[in-house]
Design a protein that fits this description.
This protein is an alpha/beta fold. The chain is 44% helix and 16% strand.
Length: 334
Amino acid sequence: MTTIADVAARAGVSIRTVSRVLNRSPLVNAATRDQVEAVVAELQFRPSARARGLATGRSFLLGLVHNDRNALVLDPLQRGIVGAAAARGYELVVHPVAPGDGDPVADVLDFAGRSRVDGVVVVPPISGIAGMAEALSEAGVPAVALSSVALSGYGAVLVSDERGAARAVADHLAALGHRRIALLSGPASAASARERRAGFIAGLDDHGLTLRHEAEGDYGFDSGVAAATRLLQATPRPTAIFAGNDVMAAAVLKVAASLAIDVPGDLSVIGFDGSILAQMLTPALTTVHRPIADMAGAITTRLIDRIEGAADDSPLTAALSLSVGGSCGPVRRG
């Protein structure tokens, strides 16, 4: 097994210099760093996590704090974080939080202390809980966040313009000639749902349109079925439904099929998230694509930079786009 001493001997430097390179110390000049890293790659050396921890006083663990039951979001989120973390020698510890169960701020602080993570990535809705960012900062825990709205107190926040993306959905439906348009929104308690709703209504208003019908779900499939059933039993029935996420959009398609409503001939359906589910449905779902894995990777890199003393304060944003599938088409006349 290759040791740090083998790397030092091959590179012609001291073991301390190799250690500094591995731990990204600024005390090593660029030429020496390149030389050592080349030998590390050549010998396929993998430093001991225990040894790195003893040398730096860090655990090389990152925490993901979330309360998202949607595996279609959690999977790319975790893959994005793990990819960025592994590239820098860190591992991931996942901690789900239930906002309605006890004190979520105390829960997250307890997790951070118990697990000895070097920093945490906090995602909605936990990232928006009042006092969360300030408590982590006071406890000396580096923290970054994903959000659909601007947040203060975190070391960095990546904000995705979900309001603007929902506005583009309204533009798309208006261009297709739809006038009887309904919204199946997410829970009003979630900032993301409020942003998507506000953007969609503003977009309709741009075209002189208003919502004909509206129902609220909890981003889950069962609530989507119940809400879609109410919307599709309305008179006159909507010709288009914008659902707050892909899971609830899938529920709309299921209810439409049970009522023999043709999609997209008699009903257009649009979701939000751009998850793998969109391509698995028939017809393929038109949806707002969020590059969740890329977003997670970018915010994780920013967190590690802060942990390692290389803070970057430049803004972080994500480009959301409408991915057009077969579930959406022109309004049928006559």
